[in-house]
Amino acid sequence: MIQTIIIGLLFASALFYVARLIYKSFVAKKGCGSNCKCGVDFSNIKPE
């Protein structure tokens, strides 16, 4: 009986983990927290 409960909990946690990974892959980020300038538009800057 206890083995079935442990296997059920492991399965549920693995299912939750995979669902969270899938959800995070579809939800767009608002922006990064680092200073990588990934959201900066460089089209108006003239190269020297």
From TrEMBL:
One Pfam family named in its UniProt record: FeoB_associated
Name assigned to this protein: FeoB-associated Cys-rich membrane protein
Top-rank taxon of the source lineage equals Bacteria
Q: State the species of origin.
A: Mucilaginibacter polytrichastri
